[in-house]
């Protein structure tokens, strides 16, 4: 009888053992996703070819150097209320400044806090080739869909 | 190190099983044995002061007491206070608070007359009341492009609590007359907690680190003094 008790306790210990939680597997701070559309035919995607892109005050984003693409996945500055992007293309410097509200949301022990962005808006932009900027989703809390459409 | 100790404990079980087997033959003579002494053992948790001596992020004190109330069963309590700062990859927080545990131990060791050593298994109910302070954090971004600034938050989450139960096993050995050195290990499981808003109870005084599925492990060294209350066996 007492022997059984010991086995029950031992069994319980093996069944409800600890779960590791020191590897971050959850979603962290999302990037901003921008898609480029044709201004003339607004249902059609239209690629841009750029020399480079960067956030003002930061290095050039290496993934997009000398790239032709119809979508950008770029970070927003988590330490500031605005982020100014500069897209270099031949002789032009196209700039877009986004403003937003930040909220630091707790995820888990290993992931810590992530920043989500609310009420994203275009504060100002240059118009060398950009015709229209449409905010599709003003809350950036995932990377499932595009948040911004740019028509050119 | 921890793994090794776990193995030692598991191996211990085999010896305990042996001691149960012996007990069966003894049982018949049990009724004519003289009534057992009654005593109270009071002690301190020695692992916490030792850790706080080497690690300034940890401060704590724990008082333990147990009493042989019925046959091989001991009533046991523990209470104490803790302050601990935990460093994680993306943030740092401090937990301060008190805890209280009550339960019983079953002594599986067959002592000779007059001896009072233990190899015990026990169950505890634990409760703690505490505050968490989020000292600082950095937002977790993918890659190293942004290199986010450290946010000095200092956010206090107060009046939090946790309730849990523990399976305990360990031993207590009389080394000098009436002085016992003990060692125990516990497996803990949270029953309920009052969680902070936009943070999580990742540590609770008396419980230790709370793993993601609300479980935890405890490890203790104790030093206790035995006070005889009733001596009937002279």
Please tell me about this protein's structure.
The complex is a heterodimer of chains A (152) and B (234). With 152 residues, chain A is mostly beta strands. Chain A has one domain. Chain A contains one helix and ten strands. Chain A has one helix spanning 2-15; strands at 32-37, 48-50, 52-55, 67-69, 71-74, 82-89, 92-108, 112-125, 132-135, 148-151. In chain A, strands 5-1-10-9 form a four-stranded mixed sheet, with no helix packed on it. In chain A, strands 3-6-7-8 form a four-stranded antiparallel sheet, with no helix packed on it. A two-stranded antiparallel sheet of chain A has the order 2-4. The radius of gyration of chain A is 23 Å and the shape is elongated. Chain B has helices spanning 2-26, 47-54; strands at residues 38-45, 58-70, 73-87, 91-107, 118-137, 151-176, 179-193, 203-204, 208-209, 215-230. Chain B has 234 residues and is mainly beta. Chain B contains two helices and ten strands. Chain B has one domain: Beta Barrel (Porin). Chain A binds chain B through residues 2-3, 6, 9-10, 12-13, 16-21, 24, 28-29, 31, 58-59, 61, 75, 77-79, 104-115, and chain B through 13, 16-17, 20, 23, 88-91, 108, 121, 137-143, 145-146, 148-149, 151, 167, 187, 189, 198-200, 202, 211-213, 215-217.
Reported by name, the CATH topology of chain B is Porin
Number of strands of chain A: 10
Instruction: Find the structural class of chain A using helix and strand composition.
Output: mainly beta
Query: What value does the Rg of chain A take, in angstroms?
Result: 23 Å
Which stretches of chain B are poorly predicted, pLDDT < 50 over at least 5 residues?
A: 16-29
By DSSP, the count of extended strands of chain B is: 10
Kindly report the oligomeric state of this protein: heterodimer
The residue-averaged pLDDT of chain B reads: 84
**Number of helical stretches of at least 4 residues of chain B:** 2
Strand content of chain B: over 45%
Helix/strand class of chain B: mainly beta
Q: So how many helices of chain A? A: 1
- Biggest chain pair contact, residues each? A-B, 36 and 36 residues
């Amino acid at each position: 009888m007492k022997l059984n008790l010991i086995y029950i306790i031992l069994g319980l210990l093996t069944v409800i053992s600890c779960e590791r939680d020191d590897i971050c597997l959850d979603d962290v701070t999302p990037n901003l996703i921008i898609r480029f559309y044709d201004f003339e035919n607004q249902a059609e995607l239209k690629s841009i070819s750029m020399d480079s892109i960067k956030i003002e005050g930061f290095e050039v984003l290496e993934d997009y150097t000398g790239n032709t693409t119809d979508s950008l996945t770029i970070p927003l500055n988590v330490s500031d209320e605005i982020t100014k992007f500069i897209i270099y293309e031949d002789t032009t410097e196209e700039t877009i400044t986004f403003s937003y509200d930040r909220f630091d949301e707790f995820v888990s022990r290993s992931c810590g806090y992530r920043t989500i962005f609310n009420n994203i808006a275009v504060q100002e932009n240059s118009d060398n080739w950009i015709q229209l900027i449409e905010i599709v989703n003003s809350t950036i809390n995932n990377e499932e869909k595009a948040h911004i459409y740019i028509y050119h | 190190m921890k793994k090794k100790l776990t193995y030692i404990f598991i191996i211990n079980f085999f010896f305990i099983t042996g001691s149960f087997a012996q007990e069966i033959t003894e049982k018949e003579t049990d009724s004519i044995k003289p009534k057992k002494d009654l005593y109270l053992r009071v002690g301190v948790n020695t692992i916490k002061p030792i850790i706080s001596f080497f690690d300034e992020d940890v401060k704590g004190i724990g008082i333990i007491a147990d009493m042989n109330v019925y046959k091989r069963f001991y009533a046991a309590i523990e209470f104490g206070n803790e302050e601990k700062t935990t460093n994680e990859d993306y943030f740092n927080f401090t937990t301060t608070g008190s805890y209280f545990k009550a339960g019983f131990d079953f002594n599986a060791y067959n002592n000779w007359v007059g001896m009072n050593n233990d190899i015990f298994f026990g169950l505890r109910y634990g409760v703690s009341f505490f505050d968490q302070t989020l000292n600082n954090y950095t937002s977790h971004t993918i890659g190293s492009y942004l290199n986010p600034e450290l946010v000095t938050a200092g956010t206090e989450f107060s009046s939090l609590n946790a309730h849990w139960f523990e399976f305990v096993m360990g031993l207590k050995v009389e080394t000098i007359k009436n002085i016992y050195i003990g060692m125990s290990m516990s497996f803990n499981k949270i029953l309920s907690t009052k969680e902070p808003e936009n943070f999580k109870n990742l540590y609770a005084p008396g419980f230790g680190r709370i793993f993601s599925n609300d479980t935890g492990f405890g490890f203790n060294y104790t030093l206790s003094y035995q006070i005889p209350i009733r001596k009937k066996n002279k």
